[in-house]
Amino acid sequence: MRQTYGKMLPGMRLTDLPGKLIVIEGTDGAGRSTQINLLKPWLEELGHAVLDTGMTRSRLAGEGIRRAKERNNLGRVTQSLFYATDFIDRLEKEIVPALRAGFIVLTDRYIYSLMARAIVRGMDTSWIRSIYSVALKPDAVFYLRIGIEQLLPRVVFSRGFDYWESGMDLFPGQDIYEGFCNYQAALLEEFDKLAQEYKFEIVDASAAADAVCDQLKKKIMEIVDPVRALAPAPRPADEFVNSLAAKIVASLALRYSELENSPAKTFPSTPPAVSVPPPRGNGLVSGI
Amino acid sequence: MGITSSIHVGPFEIFYPLKPSVSSVQQYGQHNLPGRLFVVEGIDGSGKSTQLSLLHKWLETKGYGVVFSEWNSSPLVKDTTKLGKKKKLLTPATFSLVHATDFADRTEHSILPFLKAGAIVLCDRYVYTAFARDVARGMDGEWVRDLYKFAVKPTVAFYFRVPLETAIGRLVGARDGFKYYEAGLDLGLTGDAEDSFRLFQGRILEEYEKMIPEFGLNVIDATRPVEAQQAQVRKIVQLQLNTAKELRIRP
Description:
- The complex is a heterodimer of chains A (about 290) and B (about 250).
- Chain A is built from ten helices and five strands.
- Chain A has helices spanning about 30-45, 60-70, 75-100, 110-120, 125-130, 150-155, 175-195, 210-225, 225-230, 240-260; strands spanning about 20-25, 50-55, 105-110, 140-145, 200-205.
- In chain A, strands 2-3-1-4-5 form a five-stranded parallel sheet, sandwiched between helices.
- With about 250 residues, chain B is an alpha/beta fold.
- Chain B has helices at about 50-60, 80-85, 90-115, 125-135, 140-145, 165-170, 195-215, 225-240, and strands at about 35-40, 65-70, 120-125, 155-160, 220.
- Chain B is globular, with a radius of gyration of 18 Å.
- The two termini of chain B are about 30 Å apart.
């Protein structure tokens, strides 16, 4: 049976949730959405139904948070609780129903990002933990870890600095570069603490996206299809078979090139006759 | 009587000590605030809003700087709450959280700054409303109390106690129909709005009764004449102002 982090929401049944809850965590720019965009079609091709969800995507509070962030007066406690509203709405209306229907839920961030952001903004750790004690424990948390040195060029040369990702609400006196460095460093510190406590699987996100994805696929396979993941890899053919195969290919290629160069080569003017095997004696008589 | 001689911050200790590295952000909470915070609580039809409005006028006449903040009125969160209620998206948990978000915004923008500035802040409904309603909806009592830990403890919290039937008698005729969430229709207790209202408000009353000793709520008998209740309220408020002459904006 599934578990929460301590408290139960009214009406939430923890039995019969056969789906898998997989969390992709990491700081801004770590490549979380890139990975989810690679993982989702891969899982679907394997035949799994996938729900992907992420912060501020709730029907209830997503739009409200976006509008509140456009204004300059979103306080820190209000911000933390607005995000909690968004999260719980998605937990109750998307994540739990999807798990009940046997989906693999890929979530771009989970309570850990929300806690890290709130703690960096000065909120009390036990307060924010108590709020998220109603969250479901996931099947795995993959933490895409990246240092600020590797993160900076990605941000500078792609989308540029964002007000909130640079913690400008926290460091209003600084320029956005300093803000970004300070804020992301504080977040990283918080993430590293959470990683230990909640046993994140750490994935080095400074590697190329494909390499990161291969690692993730391998680990996800262990969760969604442990039988296949544990099956021995196909044995490579031995040397004798390889050399034999090479000889056959070579001789076929030679034969082919001889035919190519032969002046007698002509296309047959009529299609070759196709012979149809007679019907077997199964008692049925064909209509012809 | 639950009257305190100075403003405490807590048992809900508001705002939390910030890391030393975040020095540009102010720390609230560890000090006493110069203002005064009076809140009224009670079920719909208890007459609490009438009493608060009479208190408001009296304080203004006496020359105090008064600020009023109403439950569920944050301009930042209002649209979200409205959407949730209109489209019936709210579960007990999100009902609780959206109201806590609203309250957080009012605490950060309409309550704390004014208390710091030495104003008298009057609140129509406070955290006790959330405790009563959310628990009546099935939320865990401890979880809801934790959720509101950032709130400032009121100087005095008045609870206007009234029997359910008296409250309903005042409401019927004064308004057209019961609202969906107000009547607890989201809980599916019964299909009839008035029956559901009665059941749900009954649960809320039980929660209020439990909170009287827990939080030292100041009970006012709301079946007494309006004038008698107001005289009692003013007497209690006056005691809290004697120690705070500097609140007055006019001599």
